[in-house]
Amino acid sequence: MSLKVIFTWWNKQTFGTFLKTLFTGKLVGTDEFGNKYYKNKKDERWVIYSNDVEATKITSEWYLWMHHTINKIPDYKELKKYSWQKKHKENKTGTKESFRPIKIKKDNIKKKYETWKKN
Predict the structure, then answer these.
(1) Most buried one in 14, 71, 87, 108, CB count within 10 A?
(2) For residues 13 and 32, what is the distance between their CA atoms, to the nearest angstrom?
């Protein structure tokens, strides 16, 4: 464990989380991104991220488990996905990969109506 992990929360976990995980945490599962999910005897639940700490990297199934909405531990290998469902993606806002809508020039907009004009 490096010094930056001890003093900074954005490097997977803090020193306190490390100790909590070491002494009271029980690994209950991992997701397809490599995030590890833990709980203790008091039913406190937490995640240790595989890379950058980013809350949007938690899939919807694990989000439900983390917030005590469901008690069944998700298993991404047996999850039934429908054809219309997309794979989970983290939020890319503020990065180069963020969604940027196509800019439409005012000249290219065709109105569906004519404005009323005074004669």
Answers:
(1) 14
(2) 19
